[in-house]
Design a protein that fits this description.
Layout: H1 2-21, H2 23-27, H3 31-49, H4 55-78, H5 80-87, E1 91-95, E2 98-99, H6 101-107, H7 111-120, E3 129-134, E4 140-144, H8 145-148, E5 157-158
Antiparallel strand pairs: 1-2, 1-3, 3-4, 4-5
Helix pairs in contact: 1-3, 1-4, 4-5
C-alpha cells in the first residue's frame, strides 16, 4: 500500500509541475524537454518504489498512475467543471490583430513563437488573423479574417 500512496503523491506533483510548465511548453517538446521529462520519470520511479526493486512494486506503481489517469479522464468527460479545473480553458492570444501580451506572458508564449505558429499555419503575418487561441493541448488555432464573415463560422487552422 505504501507504493500506491507514493505513486498518488508523485502523480499529483508531476501533474502540478506539468501545469506550471505552461501549455506552450507541453505542446511542442524540444529534445531537451523530452530528455528532462524522461529522466524525471526515472527519478520519480525510484522515489515511488523506494527499495522495492521487484516487478510487482514497479507494476503496482504504473497501475496506480494508469488508474489515476483514467479516473481524471472520466471525471473531465463527465463533469465539464472538473475538466476546466484540471486542464484549463483555451486562452485568446490575439484578437483582431492585437496581441494580448498579458495572456502570452501568463502562458509563457513569446511573440516569436506565435509568429512561428502562424507561419506554420500558412499566415505570412498576424494582420490577416482574426483570432489566435492557445488550446488546452498546447496547440494554437488561428481564425482567418477573410473567411470569417464576422468571425462566427471561421474554422480553426491547427498551429
Amino acid at each position: 500500500m505504501d507504493i500506491v500512496i507514493r505513486a498518488l503523491i508523485a502523480f499529483i506533483l508531476l501533474w502540478l509541475l506539468a501545469r506550471t510548465a505552461g501549455r506552450g511548453t507541453l505542446g511542442e517538446l524540444s529534445s531537451f524537454d523530452l530528455l528532462v521529462f524522461v529522466t524525471m520519470g526515472d527519478l520519480v520511479q525510484q522515489g515511488i518504489t523506494g527499495e522495492d526493486r521487484s516487478l510487482t512494486g514497479g507494476l503496482l506503481a504504473v497501475a496506480t498512475f494508469v488508474v489515476l489517469a483514467v479516473v481524471m479522464n472520466f471525471a473531465m468527460a463527465k463533469w465539464p467543471r472538473v475538466g476546466r479545473a484540471l486542464e484549463g480553458s483555451p486562452v485568446i492570444l490575439l484578437r483582431e490583430g492585437k496581441i494580448s501580451h498579458l495572456a502570452m506572458k501568463r502562458q509563457r508564449i513569446t511573440t516569436a513563437e506565435l509568429l512561428s505558429a502562424a507561419r506554420q499555419s500558412g499566415y505570412e503575418s498576424l494582420d490577416s488573423v482574426l483570432l489566435a487561441i492557445l488550446e488546452t493541448n498546447g496547440k494554437i488555432s488561428f481564425f482567418d479574417k477573410s473567411r470569417s464573415g464576422g468571425g462566427s463560422d471561421a474554422g480553426p487552422e491547427a498551429g
